[in-house]
Amino acid sequence: MQRPAHVLGAIGDTSLVALRRVVPPGCGRVLVKLEWENPTGSMKDRMAHAMIARAEEDGRLRAGDTIVEYTGGSTGTSLALICAARGYRLHIVTSDAFSREKLDHMAALGAQLTVVPSEGGHTTKKLIQNMIKVAEGISRARRTYRTDQLNNLDSVSGYYSLAEEIWTQTGGAVSAFVQCVGTSASSRGVATVLKRYRPRIRIVVVEPAESAVLSGGASGPHNIEGVGIGYTPPLWEPGLVDDVVAVKTDDAKEMARRLAREEALFAGTSSGANVIAAIQVAQQLGPEATVVTLMVDSGLKYLSTDVYRGA
Fold first, then answer.
1. Beta-strand (E) ranges in 7-100?
2. Is the separation of the CB atoms in 226 and 73 below 8 Å?
């Protein structure tokens, strides 16, 4: 009898499917990676696993330590999965700006939550900085390890496998990769590998139009969870990026609803933004192009929000 697999072995190897109905005629092929197939329902399982594994390997993290992180929910949920599997305590600093499902999921996996109040439920630069400050204070306690996702290079390596999967699944026939920017670890990790295979591949990143700082605009409040921190993330590597596309929150939400109804793909708001940008890129590159983007997480994380409530 084959030995049963460990839950962490279920991370990665997600499906790649083609969009059929939301893509207009004459545009290139748009493929999406179903990252909700990861154990917690998001791509962040990849980076959380990498951050914990590398800290264990070099002795920064030891048995009995408590891990501390600031997060909008998906990273926290992924860390909670790893901590439950590895036997660590976890203290998460989060906010009421993020969906109730994400907070409840983290708590269900054993995380202790400190909730920082937002301004009207919006993601803002001030909120992110307040969350970071609270996490820094908590991490001063003995036997704590702060993963510090915005500055942790280990998170980038967590997405190398995602790029390898994209290259293999497309048979190397990928013209462009499109992804929203939060910490920028996922776009940087995928771009690092794909550009080794094909230096001329286009890497396009996506940000909220209401806070289009990477495009040279002003920071502002928005409601695309998990992205758009209001300033250039420390892990940002502009040399790997060919273009930046700004997408309005309302447009991203509407595309998420369209994906559910027209493609049977149930995803979150950042996935809607990804698809809008990917279609723009596929139109620019023409019908022979293949553009890959991500279904970042499951729509089950947003049922209590206005993305799907009453939709």
1. 16-18, 29-34, 66-70, 89-95
2. yes
- CB distance 255 to 140 below 8 Å: no
Give me the CATH topology for the region 44-146.
Answer: Rossmann fold (3.40.50)
Annotated catalytic residues are 44, 270
Cβ atoms < 10 Å from Cβ of 131: 23
Q: Assess whether pLDDT exceeds 70 at residue 4.
A: no
Q: CB under 8 Å to 98, separation ≥6 — which residues? A: 72, 73, 225
What is the per-residue pLDDT for 5? 77
CATH code 2.60.120.10 for 7-37+156-302 = no
Mean pLDDT (the chain) is: 96
Continuous H helices in 88-226:
100-108, 125-138, 154-157, 160-169, 185-197
CA dist 84 → 79, 107, 175 (Å): 8, 11, 39
CA dihedral 76, 77, 79, 85 (to 10 degrees): 160
